[in-house]
Amino acid sequence: MPDKPTPGGGNSSGEIAIEVRDVVKRYRTPGRGEVHALDNVSVRVERGQVLGVVGESGCGKSTLARLLTRLERPDSGSVEILGRRIDLAKRRELRELRRVIQLVFQDPYASLDPRQRIGTALAEVLTVHRLPSGTARVGELLETVGLSPATADRYPHQLSGGQRQRIGIARALAVDPQVLVLDEPVSALDVSVRAEIINLLARLRTELGLTFVFISHDLGMVRHLADQVAVMYLGKIVEYGPWDAVSDTPGHPYTRALQAAVPIADPRLDAPPADLVVTGEVPDAANPPSGCRFHPRCPLVEDRCRSVEPLMLPESGWHRLACHVTSSEATAEGTDR
Ligand code: ADP
Ligand code: MG
């Protein structure tokens, strides 16, 4: 199938850590109608690789994170983690898979009990998974994320935002997982602290051989980690490929706009050119636009974009994108050559 991703390169081992096929997830909400949170989303991540998932708020990133970790199940399609169907797993297998894949949230504070010392919180996670939960193991976990074992005696409010996110990561690492889904892990942090956490993640990835799904609304934030990137818009992947290909030759007007918005400290750069400027708000996913969902905001919009939905078509290698105007395949078809 031409729309199936076939990634490779980077730290890849050839073994598939994550295989999401044609996943659909809708939410029926009173008053708002049916929200198309994910529409035919497919991704494949080899073991040891980092997939960056990027797009504006509301495009379905957290929904994907919840399906990957089985906090929710898809309406259709499949989710495989290291070859096992987590979307279908029953109790025992699910318990095993919950040790294989872990989710790290944007705000670990929200899931920490303010009255509980950090050491107690970490020991609790270990106990739930029937793992050794003594002081030594808790201290080891804290050191893994760059904190002193003495942090175990602290309460959440005594920690900085960066330290709390380290605790969030330590908690995920407690079960010795192989895959981490990181849902905007640095979005709430100060810029200087962001770099520290990204560096920590880069180190952990190498030392522990982890596979990451790194979610961000900001394309620039994933550049330090991602081997491949999926750009999402209103529940769909609109461009997908190796990081270098997507960042060097972004094809979808939405990707180009996201990239133009990446702050670049170069005074010679003026405002982005008009064909990169995307205006307006993201439409409601309960009522997605016809044709290409991006067309009402697209600077390159043509007639067919309003009525015909573009397919994901290959550019080069497995880099692919869905755009009537910029896709080389779509253009070739349209120009009668
Ligand atoms: P993102 O993480 O990219 O901001 P989400 O996955 O959180 O996006 O949301 C995608 C869409 O699904 C949004 O329109 C959101 O309002 C909707 N949505 C997410 N979760 C629910 C839910 N539990 N009930 C109803 N709508 C939801
Ligand atoms: Mg989200």
Class derived from helix and strand content: alpha/beta
Q: How many angstroms separate the termini?
A: 24 Å
* Bound ligands, each once: adenosine-5'-diphosphate, magnesium ion
What average pLDDT do the residues reach? Answer: 90
**Overall helicity:** 25-40%
**What CATH first level of the domain at 16-93 and 213-336 would be assigned?**
Alpha Beta
| Main sheet strand line-up | 6-7-8-3-9-10-12-11
Anisotropy-based shape: globular
CATH architecture of the domain at 16-93 and 213-336: 3-Layer(aba) Sandwich
- Low-pLDDT segments, ≥5 res: 1-5, 263-269
Output the helix-strand order.
EEEHEEHEHHHEHEHEEHHHEEH
Count the beta strands: 12
Classify the beta-strand content into a percent band: 15-25%
- Count every helix, treating DSSP H or I runs of 4 or more residues as helices: 11
What is the assigned CATH homologous superfamily of the domain at 16-93 and 213-336? P-loop containing nucleotide triphosphate hydrolases
CATH level-3 fold name of the domain at 16-93 and 213-336: Rossmann fold
Radius of gyration: 21 Å
Report on the biggest sheet. 8 strands, mixed
Oligomer category: single chain
Enzyme class: translocase
Protein name: Glutathione import ATP-binding protein GsiA
Subcellular location: Cell inner membrane
Domain ABC transporter: 18-259
